[in-house]
């Protein structure tokens, strides 16, 4: 995933990594300055929490969610890291393959920096935000404990040897999928 993430660094046309808004956007070039993937200290059962830290000059609508979705395919071994090169090459891939964006839930916009602009936050507003986040954290931890307790009350059914296991949907490679209309096709409409 990190190898694929490095391919995003630099100026590229990201039209295959966003929700295209051809009526309002004509320039899909954006500049990514840094993209790192690193492990966090948190675990849940066998799942590890990882962090994707992305820095850039500007982002398109749902760009980060689309980049993350493609990286998840790479991480699962369903796509090669070079799929990023193909999707960034607009002459090779002028139409975005259809794929589902990564969910918004784990994404956090940590900061925005603008030349010549500094944001200030009053101590009251900062304290109110801290209290709000602590309260939200407490509520989610309580909910998690309730679900954990409910799971311990359930008996796990024995597998029936006569039942066929559900088949997983076969992955269709991104570059073989049906594609959305290109920017030019959208503008012509």
Keywords:
189 residues; Alpha-Beta Plaits; 3-stranded antiparallel beta sheet; 16% strand
Q: What are the SSEs and their pairings?
A:
Elements: H1 2-6, E1 10-13, E2 29-44, E3 47-56, H2 63-75, H3 82-88, H4 123-153, H5 183-188
Antiparallel strand pairs: 1-2, 2-3
Any overview of this molecule?
With 189 residues, this protein is of the alpha+beta class. It folds into 2 domains: 1-117, Pseudouridine synthase I, catalytic domain, C-terminal subdomain (Alpha-Beta Plaits); 120-155. Helix content is 33%, strand content 16%. The chain contains 5 helices and 3 strands. It has helices at residues 2-6, 63-75, 82-88, 123-153, 183-188, and strands spanning 10-13, 29-44, 47-56. The chain has a 3-stranded antiparallel beta sheet with strand order 1-2-3.
Describe this structure in a few short sentences.
This protein has 189 residues and is of the alpha+beta class. 33% of the residues lie in helices and 16% in strands.
Q: In order across it, which strands form the biggest sheet?
A: 1-2-3
Ends distance: 37 Å
Number of helices: 5
Instruction: State the CATH superfamily name of the largest domain.
Output: Pseudouridine synthase I, catalytic domain, C-terminal subdomain
CATH fold label of the largest domain: Alpha-Beta Plaits
> What portion of residues belong to β-strands?
15-25%
The number of strands is 3
Question: What would the average pLDDT be, to the nearest integer?
Answer: 91
Q: Quickly give the structural class.
A: alpha+beta
Please tell me the CATH architecture of the largest domain by its name. Answer: 2-Layer Sandwich
Radius of gyration: 21 Å
How much helix, percentage-wise, in residues?
Answer: 25-40%
What are the segments in which pLDDT stays under 50 over at least 5 consecutive residues?
none
The CATH C-level name of the largest domain is Alpha Beta
**Biggest sheet features:** 3 strands, antiparallel
Our count of domains comes out at 2
Order of helices and strands: HEEEHHHH
Shape: flat
